[in-house]
Amino acid sequence: MLAGALAAMLLAGCATPQRIGGLAHEQAFERVGRFAITVDQPDLPTEAVQGGFAWRDTGAQLLLDLANPLGSTLARVSVEPGRATLTRSDGSTETAPDADALVLQVLGGEVPVAGLRYWLRGQAGPAPVQERANDAQGRLSSLRQDGWLVQLSRYDEQGPRQLRLLRSQDNRQVQLRLVVNGP
Predict the structure, then answer these.
(1) CATH assignment of 2-180?
(2) How far is CA 55 from CA 47, 61, 170, in A?
(3) Under DSSP, is residue 125 helix (H, G, I), strand (E, B) or coil?
(4) pTM, to two decimals
(5) Alpha carbon 47 to its chain's center
């Protein structure tokens, strides 16, 4: 169901959207790349969706653009304190109190947007960490947090360029892979 809902929002593909950009004086953490999500459940066909993403986080506001195979933005998620909004390319919107609640409301399944704010930087989030491992350079290479097994690799100066997230719950396995484009 999760991948099916994502498929309705996104066409399968590998193109990435353009950087979101912002005010010249505004400090922001930005990443652009590709994602793939698969959902496996017993006795059901595997659901899989791919697409591109552009991520811009100023700390006060997070913007996430999701793109089709040609790089056209199909949806934007905007997160500010106390409010998260999804705006589709047709102008329709949905809102929720936070990003994770919005994703659950729109897709019917969990995608850890709040955790990604930290994991994309190679950091653990504020929730309790059950397991943690570092690589030979002392960078975070894996952790268990919020029910997700997170594996981080191929670091550049901003953080990991490859993230693999896995969650198994109620006979359902969700795998999310992010590959960040090089500089």
Answers:
(1) 2.50.20.10
(2) 24, 11, 30
(3) coil
(4) 0.82
(5) 17
